[in-house]
Amino acid sequence: MKVRSRPRRPAVSALLALLAATACVGGGGHGPRPGAAGVGDPLFPRLGNGGYHVRHYGLTLDYDPGTRRLAATAVISARATQDLSSFNLDLKGLTVRAARVDGKPARTRRAGAELTVRPAAPLRKDAAFETVVEYGGRPEEITDADGSTEGWVSSASVDGAVGLGEPAGSTAWFPGNHHPSDKAAYDITVTVPDGYTAVANGELARTEHRPGGRTAFVWHSGEPLASYLATVAVGRFTVTTGRTPHGLPYYIAAAPEEAAAVPDMVKLLPEVVEWESGLFGPYPFSSTGGVVDHNARVGYALETQPKPYYQGAPGATTIVHELAHQWFGNAVTPSTWRDIWLNEGFATYAEWLWEEKRGGRTTREIFTDYYDGEDPNSKGPGGTTIWDFPPDSPTPRDLTDPPVYGRGAMALQKLREAVGDREFFGILRAWVQEHRYGNADTKAFVRLCESRTGRDLGGLFDTWLHKKGKPALSG
Questions:
Q1: How far apart are CA 335 and CA 320, in angstroms?
Q2: Least packed by Cβ within 10 Å: which of 109, 151, 304, 311?
Q3: What's residue 29's pLDDT?
Q4: What is the pLDDT of residue 10?
Q5: In what order do the strands lie in the sheet with 309-310?
Q6: Cα dihedral angle (394, 343, 43, 144), rounded to 10 degrees?
Q7: What is the rounded distance in angstroms from the CA atom of residue 295 to the CA atom of residue 237?
Q8: pLDDT (average), residues 63-86
Q9: How sure is the predictor about 157, in pLDDT bands with cuts at 50, 70 and 90?
Q10: Higher model confidence: residue 26 or residue 98?
């Protein structure tokens, strides 16, 4: 009879190695796992994605204004922040034709605005990786919870379109990690029929003539930007370029119906940039300018970096507001959407400073008019007022309502009165300097104010940012 041999006892080191290998496969819970399908933003919890950080987007877009169809490729360079078995990209609508991770085909799955990508092999934590997504179709308009329109917004005719992204509209035209906390550099190439101009973020690197009567516009944005500030505008624009007296390049693209506004903008832009630079610190980007569209479907201006988008010819106050965002919102971006008052309260206060500079009401008089309800901007559509909720507690439905703008600016006026002009403007400059190209929240702003002044300012901010209702003027 044959006798079965007894297995040898493995060495202790070999046994430990076996256990470690088993854990990596998933038995111990420490192996590769899917990245989160949202970052848990207090207002938009499903926006953005976990498990990686994007460093660069390379977007190649071919757009036909006649059919309103887009054919595109996104090259997304990222770094894994955990061991990843799969990860998500935010993308609404459009058809994904193929995806690759580090050159190898990857499986994809769609669920609403979530595109799940499963690489051929898991990605290790801290590994740099490149995802290529080929996609296309007719990009969608998105109606926000507050009723505004964003996404890919076509003109009423076939003359063009614009991609606008606050807070989630960029999901309509390119896949990405679409939360403000994940900022990246961009290179965007847009090919359109001859006779059209395509404008995107950053500076125009070059134009290229393509077969079939088409032109490619190649744009480069080296400074990090949040995806809600990414934009593409396509139209039959008249383009005006130049430099401010201090050498800052500007690029203004205007729809034919709005071309009359360009001379005023050329005069005003240098003045506003220089004035705001004196208040807030050096202008944070490599260029400035604007897109002056003629698209009634939008109905608002947006601080797209570094050339704001204007739905129609902007007045001086609107230019002041949108350019102030280049410091507050663009250079320093809120960590979450709950902190949007750090964008809008600061830009609104820039309007107040501008009015005072031009011989109008003082900032204190404007504050009083807001407090008393005499300023028209203290009220919103439908009877909303600045007292409806605290500036740091908006919901998706009231993200752009008067408390975020007006009462946010009022908090800054109270801070200025409490600490004095020297400390106040020093705080604004330090805020941009310390957080430039990054993210920050309300707590960080309060800490900065208190560290620079050596004062406990908790009561002031509690009254004007956190508490419900109309505070007493002594607060």
A1: 24
A2: 109
A3: 53
A4: 37
A5: 238-243, 249-254, 288-292, 309-310
A6: 90
A7: 13
A8: 97
A9: low
A10: 98
- The answer to whether residues 171 and 178 touch, using CB atoms and an 8 Å cutoff, is yes
Among residues 413, 368, 387, the alpha carbon closest in space to that of 470 is found at: 387
Whole-Å CA distances, 383 to 78, 267, 332, 373, 460: 45, 37, 32, 12, 27
% of the chain at pLDDT higher than 70: 93
**Taken in order 268, 273, 275, 280, is the CA torsion positive or negative?**
positive
**Tell me: the pLDDT tens digits for 40-60?**
999 999 999 999 999 999 999
Contact 47, 41 (CB under 8 A): yes
Question: According to the model, what pLDDT value does residue 427 have?
Answer: 98
Non-local (6+) Cβ contacts of 235 within 8 A are: 155, 159, 160, 161, 162, 196, 197, 253, 255, 293
143 contact partners, CB below 8 Å, separation of at least 6: 149
In terms of phi and psi (left: phi > 0; alpha: psi -120 to 50; beta: otherwise), the region of 26 is left
CB 267 within 8 A of CB 244: no
Q: What pTM does this model have?
A: 0.93
> Can you say whether the dihedral through the CA atoms of 173, 176, 182, 186 is positive or negative?
negative
